[in-house]
Sequence to fold (151 residues):
Amino acid sequence: MGHPTDINQPIIETLYCEALVLADEVRSAFDLVPARAGDEDLVRIALSVEGLRTTTRMMHVLAWLLNHRAYFSGELSEFQLRRHGVLPPDRPADPEQLALLEPETCVLIAETQAFHGRIARLDAAWRDRFTVKSDPVQRLHERLGREFGGT
Fold:
């Protein structure tokens, strides 16, 4: 497997469009304005809980993408992006709550989790390039120096 491609503007724009479509689907699925007459209280609670988790997940992804868009348009420096553009960790859905929801809603929730996972991997790969890693040869020299009392 090769090295991950660096993040660039076309990648961010493509992901942003995908995120907007997914966020709109989430909004529609969890829109509680229309009366759902036959729903039991536990189902309504499950819809509320998982709806909040799912919309929060998508808002975190959208915020991350908007920060990167701002960077590519020159509104944020790379330092600002690294400092303030961190993707928060995901909170997975509760299996007990999912069992109460319609299969289509569960599929949508899984799609948002997978999308967040993709963005998290991209974010980790991008941030990894800023991590200072010591040279293995240098570490070996230091270890030999400690063992034999020299430098």
User: Anything to note?
Assistant: The chain has a mean pLDDT of 86. The CA atoms of residues 48 and 134 lie 47 Å apart.
